[in-house]
Amino acid sequence: MGFLSEDATYLAGGLAMLAVVFLVALRTSQQGKFLIWAGIALGLAALVLLIERLWVTDNERIEQVVLELRDAVANSNPPAVFALLTPEVQFVQGGQSISGEATRNYIETELKRAHFDFVRVTKLQTNAGSQSGRGSAEFRVVASGTYELSLAKLNFGTTNLDFSLGFRELDPKVWRVDRITLTRAPRELPNPIRGANSSSSTSSSSSSSEPRPRLPFNVRP
User: What is the assigned CATH class of domain 58-193?
Assistant: First the structure.
């Protein structure tokens, strides 16, 4: 029933085209029955669109969470992002993972440094298991903006990142993200798991210069 509950475009469009055919037949034949049939076809098209509007599926709820997440990231708003995550949310990159507070700390740090000109979500595909209470979403993020370092602000041009999100239904009709997997990223993107594992070590070098930080996007000075 996805053609009716999630995307009724083809069905409603087909009924509208059928109504046009009946109207053409009415004009050529002058038979009133074609007017009645055209009215029925248009009425069914309107009914299909109304059902699609009112019938919200779990797939559409997951899609809405993804779009809300996009808006929160675009506004560099960590609290709005956290509201869409489960407490134990996991971040996975390069076969390694962090979870819970470590994930939230990483997200907050990066959003404070990044300021976006735009963030778009493309190629979005969602899947919801009504019985299991689990779902997923896969999509590509297209973004552009600036990234702040301690001594400079760098611009990054349009960059693409592919994500896979895992979802859990916390309450009926309430879906939240419990896994964030970065499946494709620019080479410059740092791995937060490696950073977390090495954060306790300190450098004994006496040199006053420090290496250029690795940035999470392709940047241009």
Answer: alpha beta
Residue 8 CB coordination number (10 Å): 21
Q: Answer for the pair 9, 49: CB distance below 8 angstroms, yes or no.
A: no
pTM for the full predicted model: 0.65
Question: In 22-52, which positions are buried (b, 16+ CB within 10 angstroms) versus exposed (e)?
Answer: bbebbeeeeeeebeebbeebbebbeebbeeb
Q: Give the model's confidence band at 8: pLDDT under 50 very low, under 70 low, under 90 confident, else very high.
A: low
Higher pLDDT, 49 or 182: 182
Query: Which among 61, 182, 46 has a CA at the least distance from the CA of 133?
Result: 61
Taking CA atoms, 163 is separated from 49, 66, 132, in Å, by 31, 11, 22
Domain boundaries, the chain: 2-54, 58-193
What strand order describes the sheet that includes 134-148? 96-99, 85-93, 174-184, 153-171, 134-148, 114-129
Model confidence pLDDT, tens digit, residues 138-165: 999 999 998 888 777 778 778 889 999 9
Q: How far is residue 196's CA from residue 136's CA, in Å, rounded to a whole number? A: 26
Distances (CA, A) of 211 to 102, 155, 201, 205, 207: 24, 19, 16, 12, 11
Cα–Cα dist 150/153, whole Å: 8
What the block records as the tokens of 151 is 């001594």
Token pair, residue 80, equals 């709005």
